[in-house]
Amino acid sequence: MSDVAGWLSPWLMGYLALGLFSGFMAGLFGIGGGVVIVSLLAMMFNAQGFPHEHILHLALGTSMATIVFTSLSSLRAHHAHGAVEWPLVRQLTPGVIAGTFVGTLIAARISTRALALFFGVFVLLVAAQMAANLKPKPSRSLPGPLGVAGVGTGIGAVSALVAIGGGAMTVPWLSWCNVPLQRAIGTSAAMGFPIAVFGSLGYLWNGTHAEGLPVGSAGYLFIPALVCLMVASVLTAPLGARMAHRLPVVTLKRAFAALLVLLAARMLWGVWRGG
């Protein structure tokens, strides 16, 4: 216990600050905060001297676990407004669960460098989409149940590999399939919960036998950071959501996209140089 207190206290405020920032960004832009949390947690874990081979896995697992709580809050809000297509959620969920487990299995078995490269490329694509404010034009209808389940599998797998709630993929796809934007966002919020739950369980399970994890870890979940992030992000997410209706969001998205590029580049450089 004393070992935990010895290194935790200087970082406690850092985890809380990251939670406040990521919660606000999640509320403002609706991106779940995962891309911010993973990048900054990886830098913080590296600065704390955590084993290099586990840094990104811990950042991904911890970030995924925080989404359990934020996605549940978002889901309840969208359901209250009648914006969730529950029949579509039921069709997507089996594939999402299967894909999420596959994604965590892959993440646990590939190197930190390979995982960092995949994450970095994904973040750069998200940043490009935000900077250009791209919105796919509705041009087709939803596929049949098997097609929907297949798409869910892909969304779940990628979401687990980059520790997001899936909104960056689900909302554009549903919009492309002529689902109204508000219902696409609400349905995506509903899908974020099973992605986060089963993704967290996957990182917990796959990290159970990993050697050299820091004190305070449960599999690939770093509990002290998780608790701080969870508490702080819940406080600021509603504030970000309110500010989204008052600020020039397109301009802010471009500024945030630039921040994402810097964070991804810095994280990739640190991970690559470390190993």
Instruction: List SSEs in N-to-C order.
Output: HHHHHHHHEEHH
* Share in helix: over 70%
Describe the sheet with the most strands.
2 strands, antiparallel
**Residue-averaged pLDDT:** 82
Extract low-pLDDT stretches. none
DSSP, total strands: 2
Query: Distance between termini?
Result: 30 Å
Number of helices: 10
Query: How much beta, percentage-wise?
Result: under 5%
Question: What oligomeric state do these chains adopt?
Answer: single chain
Task: Name the overall outline.
Answer: globular
Structural class by SSE content = mainly alpha
Walkthrough of the structure:
With 275 residues, this protein is mainly α. The protein has one domain (2-274). It is 79% helix and 1% strand. It is built from ten helices and two strands, in the order ααααααααββαα. It has a two-stranded antiparallel ribbon. α1 (2-29) packs antiparallel against α2 (34-47), α2 (34-47) packs parallel to α10 (249-274) and α7 (167-176) runs antiparallel to α8 (181-206). The radius of gyration is 18 Å and the shape is globular. The protein starts with a helix and ends with a helix. The model has no long low-confidence stretch (mean pLDDT 82).
